[in-house]
Sequence to fold (176 residues):
Amino acid sequence: MIIFTDIITGDEIVSDTFRMKEVDGVVYEIDGKMVTKVIGGDVVVDIGGNPSALEASEDMETKTEAVVDVCDAFRLEETIPKHLEKKQYLSQLKEGYMKRVKEALKERGASDDTVKEFQDKAQKYSVKILSRWDNYDTYTGQSQDHDGMYVLVDFREDGVTPYLTVWKHGLVEVKV
Fold:
């Protein structure tokens, strides 16, 4: 299995157990599913004893919430506010993230052609992202380090299937 981590923060973002599709040579789209997650509630361990008639039951309230399976599996954290402003994302992307990825690629021995390809394709693809900005929910890795990659979540045309968009060059493959 291969786990893909953020090149900046080291946070786990996704693994190859999810279907990943490369788009325009610069991002991956990862299809997810909406699943219901149970929060709270009792953990029942039956060891054969009878509860005391004098003890009051301490039932915990059980809640459920719908989550994207990939986000839940890798503990991606929804940004607060839930939806970043377009200007805020663009500023973080251009003035910080792209420069840090470029430096990280060079540190890892990437060729000048690879770095140039990343810069050119990322600039073009960021225009696509910004044109659909209102559709995205934004997530960060588990560390919630805003210097790292923002994972973008949208829904396919069917309105049911969520998918994540992540920067290809911003990921490091870790074989486990």
Notes: The chain has a mean pLDDT of 87. Residues 86-107 form the longest helix (22 residues). The first strand starts at residue 2 and ends at 6.
